[in-house]
Design brief:
By secondary structure, the chain is α/β, with parallel strands linked by helices. It is built from 17 helices and 20 strands.
């Protein structure tokens, strides 16, 4: 039987994992990536002796990445290693409260009670509810195709259906957290998890309270060498399975023969293929298919947040900061009103600071640190970003000095900036949204695009804008689902 050929569009973590899984199953696989190096949003920047992880900076559910290797008969530890983080994040509040979010639930609960007075037992009860949501949803929404009949007759689905009320879908995240905790600092801490998929805790369903389970009941991790090590390890495995990775190569069109994929067109001609897997935003992907209009709901549905990131090489060290740090806004609700309604940036945004030098000594010169400084922004709808960036930079610098006591502007020795326009340009993310559609509705999980096309044979989708969603773990899940679908349908 003739070996079938697969073209993967995009080399994000989902595209790489899909390609590897399919190559290991006997398909001939090529990846076409428009950027100069693989990785998509999970990439790196090197500048004047500093190295920065450009995008995702937190690693959860590492067994999903390990499975890519072990399912191919390889030992993942031969390719990469990682450590569990005892402190996941250090939180700073305007009243001077500084709280370490320990990975261990008992330590976290004790820290919260000591620093804020919120009873430790409430925290432990909250995390137990988070665990139950995960147990009910993971094998239905996260690790199974939600667009096939077999899911709806599975034991897991029936179990979740019978206990739907435990998922808390009809209460907003903020409302639920405000009812559980009396202390506003802790409400804000757990509200923040809505931003992990670019959503608004004042609108998103309390089902998203599943996310703290991943960090505090399972753990948050960090790869040795930094986050880009994930892509390096996948690239090495891909090359061992003869996956060809073409960088700097933009796909202009997905070619069809009738209602079936037949290849892709690029500047240097047509490349035939039996199967196409798109690891790109679903809107961008549909724009590559002639005579197949973009489904209206993917254009009109609300988009997730984007980001403004400053990559600062800083002279000096910061013992007051940890690997991951959050400087909270004093008015969280106002911040989300600006992000989702006004489509702008408040003067007091929540600031996230990630310093990989705390773990990877070679990421900055001696006596220096590499600061990844990020705020959430709205999607790109044509705002005057140059003005917004200028204002945001000033406000961030003032906020850092106010909340940490350190004036860093004179210590910045190098700077690079990533904004929603560049995110859209570099990663083909519609409007620069990091996670595709937001999850501000109880129906959001049901409305994500499936991992296959119902109208075009041989066309499949992976990555953050399709089922099951954004973030490294869910992108890896989408890759596994795609590989299973292709093997079942295309043999």
């Amino acid at each position: 039987m003739k070996q079938k050929h697969v073209i993967v569009i995009g080399s994000g973590v989902a595209g790489m994992a899909s390609a590897i899984r399919l190559a290991a199953k006997g398909f001939s696989v090529e990846i076409f990536e428009s950027a100069s190096q693989p990785g998509g949003k999970l990439n790196e920047l090197r500048q004047e002796g500093f190295r920065f992880d450009r995008g995702p900076s937190l690693f959860t559910l590492p067994h999903l990445l390990d499975e890519v290797f072990s399912d191919c008969g390889k030992d993942p530890r031969d390719y990469y290693t990682y450590d569990i983080l005892p402190v996941i994040c250090r939180y700073f509040y305007e009243d001077g409260t500084v709280l370490d979010a320990y990975r261990d639930p008992l330590q976290l609960a004790s820290e919260i009670e000591t620093k804020t007075g919120e009873k430790a037992q409430k925290v432990l009860h909250f995390l137990e509810k988070s665990r139950k949501i995960y147990e009910l949803t993971s094998n239905v929404f996260l690790f199974r195709s939600f667009h096939q009949f077999s899911t709806f007759v599975s034991r897991d689905f029936i179990k979740a259906l019978l206990q739907w009320y435990k998922l808390d879908p009809f209460t907003t995240m903020h409302t639920r957290n405000s009812r559980i905790f009396r202390e506003k600092h802790i409400v804000q801490l757990f509200d923040r998890y809505a931003t992990y998929n670019g959503s608004d805790p004042y609108q998103a369903p309390a089902t998203l309270n599943v996310i703290p389970h991943l960090e505090h009941n399972i753990g948050a991790f960090f790869p040795e060498g930094g986050m880009y090590t994930i892509i390096k390890s996948l690239r090495k495995l891909a090359e061992e399975f003869q996956v060809s990775i073409h960088t700097g190569t933009k796909v202009d069109e997905i070619i069809l023969s009738g209602k079936k994929v037949s290849g892709v067109r690029m500047g240097n001609g047509i490349h035939p293929s039996d199967i196409v897997v798109a690891d790109a935003d679903i809107v961008y992907t549909y724009a590559l298919i002639k005579n197949h209009p973009i489904p209206k709901r993917f254009i009109t549905s609300g988009r997730s947040t984007s980001a403004l990131i400053f990559y600062w090489g800083i002279k000096g060290n910061s013992p007051e900061l940890d690997l991951h740090n959050v400087l909270f806004s004093s008015d969280y609700q106002k911040e989300f009103e600006y992000l989702f309604r006004k489509k702008s940036i408040t003067d007091d945004p929540t600031v996230y600071i990630f310093i990989s030098k705390k773990r990877v000594q070679g990421d900055a010169p001696e006596g220096s640190e590499n600061w990844f400084v990020m705020i959430n922004t709205p999607e790109n709808i044509g705002q005057d970003w140059d003005v917004l960036i200028s204002h945001a930079r000033k406000n961030i610098l003032v906020k850092i000095e106010r909340m940490t006591g350190r004036r860093i502007e004179p210590q910045i020795v190098t700077e690079a900036i990533l904004d929603p326009r560049k995110i859209e340009e570099y990663t083909s993310s519609w409007h620069g949204s990091l996670y595709g559609a937001h999850s501000n509705s109880v129906f959001s999980a049901f409305l994500r695009h499936p991992n296959f096309s119902r109208k075009i044979q041989g066309l499949y989708f992976c990555g953050g804008s399709v089922h099951p969603g954004g973030g490294i773990p869910l992108c890896l899940s989408s890759a596994k689902l795609v590989a299973e679908l292709v093997c079942r349908r295309e043999r």
